[in-house]
Write a structure and sequence with these properties.
89 residues; mainly alpha; 0% strand; Rna Polymerase Sigma Factor, Chain: A
């Protein structure tokens, strides 16, 4: 496979992954935001925590196991991100 075809194939795969990730996030985002509010008890901090969680989830999306509950996976990332932020204080 030539370099151009390989790069095109990789880019197409990433686009499909992002579309799937975006779809899964859209069904879970409301619940995740609610959990962020419960953890932080502050709207601004909850928004920051959710954003941090989504970035970490996207970066680690290849570790998500299809067929398992996406929301549980996302909330676990959020809990760890929250604990990490509390340790830095």
């Amino acid at each position: 496979m030539s370099g151009v075809l390989l790069e095109s194939s990789i880019n197409e795969s990433k686009s499909l992954d992002f579309a799937r990730f975006d779809e899964m996030v859209s069904t879970s985002k409301r619940r995740a935001y609610s959990m962020a509010l419960q953890l932080t008890r502050n709207v601004s901090d909850a928004e920051d925590l959710l954003q941090d969680t989504l970035v970490k989830a996207w970066r680690g999306f290849d570790s998500y196991i299809p067929g398992r509950p996406f929301l549980n996976w996302l909330l676990r990332i959020m809990q760890r991100a929250y604990l990490d932020s509390r340790r830095r204080i």
